[in-house]
Amino acid sequence: MEVFVAENAGFCFGVKRAVKMAFDAAEQYKEDVHSLGPLIHNPQVVERLSQKGVKKVEALDQIEKGVVILRSHGVSSPRVILDAEAQGLHVIDATCPFVTNAQKYAKQLVDEGYQVVMVGDRNHPETKSVIGHSGSEILVTEDFEEIKQALKKYPKKRIGIISQTTQTFGRFSEIVVKCLEICEEVKVFNTICYATEDRQTEVQQMAEDVEAMVVVGGKNSANTTHLADICREKGIPTYHIETSREVEDGWFPGMRKVGVAAGASTPDWIIEEVVDRLRKI
Ligand code: SF4
């Protein structure tokens, strides 16, 4: 059985940066290093960090002293950083620069008097962090009808549009075009990070060339789950696993080609273990 591994499998730029910052902090400060929430959506990486001394906490009041690392999706408000500093903590901000960019443009649009629309999922930590940093009410939605309804309350019909970093360009541009039809003025910042879309496109193509797909990543990772969904939509057997221990010999009866993809928060060491395991079948 041949095993093909996606080129874009594993850590994206922002996750790689955050994980490196956390391991460096553990090395430098030895103890009293904390991450506010799980640093990334991968339980194995969070566990490895905890073995190195990086403790996961849910709130600042669980930290007495030392270092706090802010995760790649960003924190819910700039207030969190001010509170951490007021508490005497050393803050390491591992927010992905693409997310920081979205926060900055949201704030700019609010300051310029636009009603801001973010095309995305309002329950995702990233969109919550952008709302928190904008200092105002932002409409987060992927549904144009919702935007239309909301605009009834804004007589000027000047809207500023940004995107959740993981949004697809197709969905984003569709909403922008529809808004142009009903607004007097539309100002747009493209805040998409193409790491996600590139990964999805590659997996879509790969799923057409193999007989089964193994998608590796946290069960709590939205981008990994989405990759598995893309493969299932192609109608081939798809297994979403977190580690090589879950692979079963009987999954690939008579198959000659199997593909491996991984989410943006899956480390190389886990992907390599899965590939080794598959090659032994
Ligand atoms: S997917 Fe893009 S925006 Fe999200 S953490 Fe990775 S590099 Fe940053």
Features:
single chain, 281 residues, alpha/beta, Cobalt-precorrin-4 Transmethylase, domain 1, Rossmann fold, 3 domains, four-stranded parallel beta sheet, 12 strands, binds iron/sulfur cluster
Describe the protein in words.
- By secondary structure, this protein is an alpha/beta fold.
- The protein has three domains: 95 residues, 4-hydroxy-3-methylbut-2-enyl diphosphate reductase, catalytic domain (Cobalt-precorrin-4 Transmethylase, domain 1), CATH 3.40.1010.20; 83 residues, Rossmann fold; 91 residues, 3-Layer(aba) Sandwich (Cobalt-precorrin-4 Transmethylase, domain 1), CATH 3.40.1010.20.
- It is 43% helix and 19% strand.
- The strands form three sheets. A four-stranded parallel β-sheet has the order 1-12-10-11, with helices on both faces. It has a four-stranded parallel β-sheet with strand order 3-2-4-5.
- α4 runs parallel beside α5 and α8 runs parallel beside α9.
- The structure holds iron/sulfur cluster.
- The site of iron/sulfur cluster (SF4) has 14 residues, from α1, α4 and α8.
- Iron/sulfur cluster binds next to α1, α4 and α8.
Write the layout of secondary structure elements.
Elements: E1 2-5, H1 13-29, E2 33-36, H2 43-51, E3 54-57, E4 67-70, H3 78-86, E5 90-93, H4 97-111, E6 115-119, H5 125-134, E7 139-141, H6 144-151, E8 158-163, H7 169-182, E9 185-188, H8 194-209, E10 212-216, H9 222-233, E11 238-241, E12 257-262, H10 268-279
Parallel strand pairs: 1-12, 2-3, 2-4, 4-5, 6-7, 6-8, 8-9, 10-11, 10-12
